[in-house]
From TrEMBL:
It is found in: Cytoplasm. GO terms for biological process: tRNA N1-guanine methylation. It comes from Deinococcus indicus. GO terms for molecular function: tRNA (guanine(37)-N1)-methyltransferase activity. It is an enzyme of class 2 (transferase). It comes from the Bacteria. PANTHER family: TRNA (GUANINE-N(1)-)-METHYLTRANSFERASE. This is tRNA (guanine-N(1)-)-methyltransferase. Keywords: Cytoplasm, Methyltransferase, S-adenosyl-L-methionine, Transferase, tRNA processing.
């Protein structure tokens, strides 16, 4: 049985994207779906979140979903038949995703891909995870990092927030996510707001000057500088321009690094036009 979160009575229309989460602890995910931008998007019918309690598909009166592993060992394993029954209760999905340490790394590119779907189903494990045969029920496995957590709900919340904000209409400015870190291939540039002076630190003058071209150039330079200093690995796949090549060189990047990143050649300097010689004076009496 699915556990839909309550929505206002005036919510209308078919959501652009539905997230279904199979979990043993739906209460952990409920706040992420009910509050802030995701909650407002659900109220407007742009997306929906369905929480499926796998204990409802245990098939026994004690709602026991796990059992001891064959071959011995510590911990308990979630049964594959429970996962299968829970999945069968849902409408057809574009993707059925299992959170797993062996999964594909979750990146901004993956978030953008998933945002194009209509129905995503996620399996959130607990204990020692799912019976390995559950892998045959999914279309892909995802990992949010090389570390171990107690369950998949925190990972699910990360994916929900990352993907939901890409659904058209969810953010107030449809272009606001395009300059985000990773969306542009680089880390984001630093942002400032009031007060203009704080504990000896000032907002850069260029941001208060009103020159939009200068602001754009400053932000691009700052994004390049941050990426070079903190995440130079991103520059291998970043869409660099000839002007970026000049900026990176000024920031200390070596020719070998620029070549490794596939940076294009810098723009050729413009040749100055030679002044035309003045016409000779006409001969006298002409």
């Amino acid at each position: 049985m699915t556990d839909p979160l309550p929505l206002p009575d005036d919510t209308a229309g078919t959501p652009g994207l539905t997230f279904s989460f199979l979990t043993l602890f739906p209460e952990l995910l409920a706040p992420f779906a009910a509050e802030a931008i995701v909650g407002k998007a659900r109220e407007r019918g742009l997306l929906d979140v369905r929480l499926v309690n796998m204990r409802d598909f245990a098939g026994n009166r004690h709602h026991k979903v796990d059992d001891t592993p064959y071959g011995g060992g510590a911990g308990m394993v979630i049964r594959v038949d429970v996962a299968e029954r829970a999945l069968a209760s849902l409408p057809a999905a574009d993707e059925v995703i299992l959170f797993s340490p062996a999964g594909q790394p979750f990146t901004q590119a993956v978030a953008e891909e998933l945002a194009e779907r209509r129905h995503l189903v996620f399996l959130c494990g607990r204990y020692e995870g799912f019976d390995a045969r559950t892998e045959g029920l999914v279309t892909r496995e995802l990992s949010i990092g090389d570390f171990v957590m107690m369950g998949g709900e925190a990972a699910a919340a990360c994916v929900l927030e990352a993907v939901a904000r890409l659904v058209p209409g969810v953010l107030g400015d449809p272009e606001s996510h395009q300059a985000d870190s990773f969306s542009s291939g680089l880390l984001d540039y630093p942002e400032y707001t009031r007060p203009p002076e704080w504990r000896g630190q000032s907002v850069p003058d260029v941001l208060r000057g009103g020159n939009h071209g200068a602001v754009a150039a400053w932000r691009r330079g700052q994004a390049l500088a941050r990426t070079l200093a903190r995440r130079p690995d991103l520059l291998v796949s970043a869409p660099l321009t000839p002007a970026d090549t000049v900026t990176l060189g000024e920031l200390g990047a070596t020719p070998e690094q620029l070549q490794e990143w596939g940076a294009p050649p810098p723009p050729r300097p413009k040749r100055r036009k030679r002044p035309r010689p003045a016409d000779p004076d006409p001969p006298p009496g002409s």
